[in-house]
Design goal:
By secondary structure, the protein is α+β, with helices and mostly antiparallel strands. It has two helices and 25 strands. Bound molecules: 2-acetamido-2-deoxy-beta-D-glucopyranose (7 copies). One 2-acetamido-2-deoxy-beta-D-glucopyranose binds next to loops.
């Protein structure tokens, strides 16, 4: 029991010792401000190294901007045109009680791309609906590639992004690709790619980015009517309008027993119409589609047809009656 008690006291003492000294001993008594440097290539940088403990000297070690050992409590590493991609500065201290220790400063040197361009791979000219194509984005001379994101825009919409995982500090050329399968609504749409350097909290706000010129996509698609038949009541204002969107622009032909001449217009005026069926065939290089217009006589014509028929029947009846009267009593006429 007593042994157990002493064991517990000993353990507590050890824990207390570690808490008071152990953790402090492991940490170098230096503060860097900022803790990470993000610098544009050939740009300027300054980082403070400070301490609050008694010491025999602190200093900055670096291939550029080194600060010799000093008795001050704050020293600044400063470079006005930083062009060394793999610089690794560190601040060191000789504490009054303790061994020399040092703190590395992570430095990210970035360079925005010289150019960002978009193109189609192995293809020129208009694209065909529902075929697959590859777009390519070339980013020239960018660093560091691990912070690079290539964003793809279709019109104003972000459609994809490409990240890069390699860790190379010096500028590289990178290519990102995007597979697309255009449809008829994509005719005339513009694609762009954008190279963005997401450099983190210490980096510039907003993150630097370079955007390509837009790439206009032309899509070939065949004509497609929204309905294959349409019933139309004949009147003097009515026209048959077969106009439909297609690329390249379609040609029109009309087929009907009522049409004597060949018509290539997409619209038939009422002057050419009489009740019956009119088939319009729309064609371009991608295919064709047809539509049947069923032209009906209007209620008004039917009404007049009944009236005229009625009048004709009445006239016939009267004439018939007259003839009958003449034949049955010839005396009455004289
Ligand atoms: C670096 O920047 C300075 C101006 O701050 C400029 O004169 C010099 O040409 C630049 N050098 C490079 C390699 O960009
Ligand atoms: C570094 O220290 C100097 C002097 O105290 C101060 O003016 C400057 O703002 C400090 N820089 C940073 C980044 O804290
Ligand atoms: C690329 O990184 C961004 C964040 O920076 C993330 O949202 C996105 O999902 C990543 N894309 C891929 C394909 O990993
Ligand atoms: C990137 O491409 C350009 C032009 O094609 C070339 O001049 C340059 O040397 C390339 N840079 C690298 C790092 O490959
Ligand atoms: C065509 O006429 C019929 C009656 O003959 C009528 O029911 C129909 O609504 C009319 N259609 C149009 C589009 O005017
Ligand atoms: C025919 O329809 C098209 C659209 O479908 C329209 O742009 C055009 O003005 C119409 N033409 C006539 C003569 O109504
Ligand atoms: C007109 O077309 C309709 C529907 O396609 C069909 O039912 C009708 O028989 C056709 N009429 C004539 C006169 O061809």
């Amino acid at each position: 029991m007593l042994q157990y008690f002493f064991g517990l006291v000993y353990l507590s003492a050890v824990l207390l010792y570690v808490a008071l000294t152990g953790t402090h001993a492991a940490e170098c008594p230096l503060q860097l401000n900022p803790q990470r440097a993000v610098v544009r290539y050939n740009g300027s940088v300054s980082v403070n190294c400070s301490t609050s403990v008694q010491h025999d000297g602190i200093g900055w070690e670096a291939s550029e901007g080194a600060v010799p050992m000093s008795r001050d409590n704050l020293i600044t590493w400063r470079v006005s045109n930083l062009r060394e991609w793999d610089i690794e500065p560190f601040c060191y201290i000789n504490p009054k009680d303790g061994d020399q220790c040092s703190l590395y400063l992570p430095v990210t040197i970035y360079k925005t791309p010289d150019s960002v361009s978009i193109s189609t791979v192995n293809h020129i000219g208009p694209m065909k609906e529902r075929n697959q194509y590859e777009l390519q984005c070339d980013v020239l001379n960018v660093a560091p590639v691990q912070y690079l994101t290539v964003k793809w825009y279709k019109g104003q919409t972000l459609v994809d992004q490409t990240n890069f995982t390699v860790t190379i500090k010096t500028p590289v050329n990178k290519t990102a690709t995007l597979m697309i399968r255009p449809d008829r609504s994509d005719d005339g749409v513009q694609y762009r790619c954008e190279a963005e350097l997401k450099l983190g909290e210490e980096g510039p706000r907003p993150p630097p980015k370079v955007t390509s010129k837009p790439l206009s996509v032309e899509v070939y698609y065949k004509p497609k009517h929204s309905s294959s038949t349409e019933t139309i009541n004949l009147s003097s204002e009515v026209t048959l309008n077969c106009t439909v969107k297609a690329n390249p622009a379609p040609t029109y032909t009309w087929d009907s027993e009522h049409l004597k001449e060949k018509i290539t217009s997409s619209v038939l005026p009422s002057s050419k119409l009489s009740p019956g069926n009119y088939t319009c065939i729309t064609t371009n290089s991608q295919g064709s589609d047809s539509k049947v217009f069923i032209v009906r006589s209007t209620g008004r014509t039917t009404f007049w047809a009944i009236v005229i028929t009625g009048v004709a029947v009445a006239v016939l009846l009267i004439i018939g009656y007259g003839i009958y009267k003449c034949k049955s009593s010839p005396n009455s006429v004289i």
